[in-house]
Design brief:
The protein has 6 helices and 16 strands. The mean pLDDT is 94. The termini are far apart. Helix 3 packs across helix 6 and helix 4 packs across helix 5. The strands form 3 sheets. Strands 1-2-3-4-5 form a 5-stranded mixed sheet, covered by helices on one side. A 5-stranded mixed barrel has the order 6-7-14-10-9. It has a 3-stranded antiparallel sheet with strand order 11-13-12. By secondary structure, it is of the alpha+beta class. A hairpin with a 4-residue loop joins strand 12 and strand 13. The longest helix is centred in the first third of the chain and has 19 residues.
Length: 273
Amino acid sequence: MQVIQLRVLERRIHIHCQEPLSEALVTAAYGAMQQRSDVMDLDYNVGRDGVPPAFFIRRAGRRLAATPDDGTFLALLDEDIAIELQKLRADLYFIHAAVLKRSDTAVMLVTHSGGGKSTLSWALLHHGFRFLSDELGPVDLEKLEVHPFPRALALKTAPPMAYPLPPKTVRTSRTLHVTAADIPDGIIQSPVPLSAAFFLTWRPDAPAPSVRRLSTGEAAARFYANALNPLAHAGEGLDGVIRLATRLRCFELITAGLAPTCALLATTIERSL
């Protein structure tokens, strides 16, 4: 048995892997978070058992899931870790978003699951952006800083040929995982001041990408729709989204073609600084 010890959002997670395949999958997904510690906030046991063998996830003696495929196993483990971290760090306001660094500040890409934030993130990493997260944006509302969640970048489909995946990409039944070792320019490991948010809308019939500045009210409503732990905060989370919408430059970005979308996003950031 191998124990993989993680540090994320200043909390410690131990994952006891009972066999080599589950160990390889956990390492691929969370390798950038590894740090040894005797302190433990979350404790998991994962592996495979049964005939035919199925992956299992156990926490605090409870069997959380059983699944025959590797993609669902990682998705369920990721979901449980994200939920438990929201409980352990209720001081942070969690937004369902990708987060990238440009110059000295961070930018959020906000959309629903499957809305293209991971694919756009992968492309932007080839245009001078750096990686914090493709799934969670945990924000310190007082400092207006966003913390990294450096899980492997997970794509549902292969990107266009202009942005090829690395040869060592981990392919599961559901996702394509680009590990920390293959992220261009490495991963940001410390909080970064947050300056802007782009709410993505994919329109396949759009002839070109476009962007428009959002009003405070519209931005607040969109933030609230993508908030993961609003009830942990004052005013049932409304105070937090109003603060974000007021303090950040917020845009709707219609995406159409990765290269022109990347160029438009970068230009918008430069003009708004």
